[in-house]
Write a structure and sequence with these properties.
A hairpin with a 2-residue loop joins strand 14 and strand 15. It is built from seven helices and 19 strands. The two termini are 20 Å apart. The longest helix has 21 residues. Helix content is 21%, strand content 22%. It is of the alpha+beta class.
């Protein structure tokens, strides 16, 4: 990789006075990156990087390892601490956290789902927690036109005792319009906007295959009681039907209806993040995806072993779309210097000043791990470092094909199947970005492997194109 590259003038790293930083670790991320009119914040937690959870963020030492749902005051305090830090980043960028967020992603600590849950029942439910204290706190910081949202349950976060991490994207001074779901589509319960529109863009919240009722309070159950829409449930007494395919199709139908209300269409989608449970569900998801996007599919990152917010859900998707009247033209990026993606997704899509990457992982075009060693020699290669290097090499090659560079990477979300990957991955990032590293968030999914055998890390990235 060319370490001599410097970021373009249109990409600016954002720091905030008094913001805690991990002085014991290499600098692998910036608190925020401002580029193309968007502000990308690093994954933010309620820690001062001196004690696991700072004095603002926990109630008592005995509560340190107790699940968040057992101590609502604790989650509320951690929520305040996290959002206060994000407010400082927004202020340093000339933005206002009250009015300027355009997408929010939340990661909550939960004991479930586990590997066993995925392997035995395909269950993705992050059961046993309540996020209401967080939502009530969020509403104190972000106004009624709240950004599209997605929530994710994880068995733990990078720092023991932390119950919450928030990733936030904003646009300083944005004039956004909120849209509710149209008639016939069940409305979400968490107070966020199903869609917002601003400038050339429509952003859709994480949508799921539910009517927000499921079998609750019902005497009739279609098989195992769950929170999915009855239309997604095949007859369990017959050989026929694919529940995953039905969930994907219904969810995309809902997103298409919401997009239309907001002045766009699902065909105008340029970027999507897909959350699934067990990787065995990938092929059913991908088959339905091809039907909805037969030509020029959007950039797509698929994250397996996701902890979702309702019993029985196996699919969730967020989307970035262009408005119907936008003059921006999406350009599909392809280069033979990076692997062909696994599934129905391009390497990347360029739209205006942004480059949206599809799923990044250290596999070749056949889906085989590119950093593997001969059997018996595994100890000679640090897979965390090797796989992050491979991902950064892919970003560099695809960026060059799109007319930008690795140095212009704005945001990188890293998902791994074990925390032993974090330190070597962070060191590779620090080495690759000696000047103004991107906004980074680190997450551990709830199972393994990451679709391809031996794959421990995947990335979700957005870059700036000058």
């Amino acid at each position: 990789m060319n370490m001599s590259d410097k970021p373009s003038p249109g990409r600016k790293a954002i720091d905030a006075p008094g913001l805690p930083k991990p002085g014991f670790a290499p600098k692998f991320s910036s608190p925020g990156i401002l580029a193309g009119g968007w502000l990308f914040c690093s994954g933010t937690m309620p820690t001062d990087f001196e004690s696991p959870v700072d004095s603002v963020g926990f109630t008592d030492p005995e509560a340190l390892y107790r699940p968040a749902s057992y101590d609502n005051a604790r989650l509320r305090q951690q929520s305040h601490a996290t959002l206060q830090r994000l407010a400082k980043i927004f202020e340093a960028a000339g933005a206002n956290i009250k009015t300027d967020p355009i997408r929010i992603e939340q990661f909550f600590r939960s004991d479930h789902p586990t590997q066993q849950d995925f392997d035995t029942t395909r269950d993705t439910w992050a059961k046993g927690i309540s996020i209401s204290p967080y939502l009530e706190t969020r509403n104190e910081y972000i106004d009624e036109a709240r950004p599209p949202s997605v929530g994710f349950g994880v068995t733990d976060l990078p720092i023991p005792g932390v119950d919450l991490q928030v990733d936030l994207i904003g646009s300083p001074g944005v004039k956004k319009e909120r849209f509710e779901v149209p008639g016939g589509v069940a409305s979400p319960l968490a107070g966020y906007a199903p869609a917002i529109r601003f400038g050339d863009w429509v952003k859709l919240a994480g949508e799921v295959p539910t009517d927000w009722q499921g079998d609750w309070m019902s005497e009739k159950h279609m098989g195992e009681p769950r929170a999915t829409d009855p239309r997604t449930r095949p007859n369990e007494y017959l050989w026929y039907g694919d529940e995953m395919a039905e969930q994907v199709n219904l969810t995309l139908e809902k997103q298409a209806a919401i997009a239309e209300v907001a002045g766009s269409s699902i065909e105008r989608c340029v970027n999507a993040t897909v959350y699934i449970g067990h990787p065995a569900d990938f092929s059913s998801m991908d088959a339905v995806w091809k039907k909805w996007f037969p030509k020029n599919p959007p950039a797509r990152t698929v994250i397996p072993y996701s902890g979702l917010g309702g019993k029985g859900w196996r699919f969730e998707v967020t989307m970035d779309l262009l408005t119907n009247d936008s003059n921006l033209e999406p350009v599909t990026i392809k280069t033979d210097k990076a692997p062909t993606p696994f599934g129905h997704e391009p390497q990347a899509v360029k739209v205006g000043n942004f480059l949206f990457f599809s799923t990044l992982r250290a596999v070749n075009s056949q889906g085989v791990l590119s950093t593997s060693t001969p059997p018996g020699f595994e100890r000679y290669v640090d897979q965390g470092a090797a796989q992050m290097r491979a991902i950064l090499a892919q970003i560099e090659a695809i960026s060059a094909a799109a007319g930008t560079s690795l140095a212009n990477l704005c945001r990188l979300k890293v998902f791994m199947d074990g925390w032993n990957m974090l330190a070597p991955a962070a060191q590779e990032l620090a080495h690759a970005f000696p000047i103004d590293p991107p906004a980074v968030s680190m997450h551990r999914v709830n199972g393994s492997p990451m679709i391809a055998p031996g794959c421990h890390i995947l990335g979700d990235a957005i870059s700036y194109v000058p």
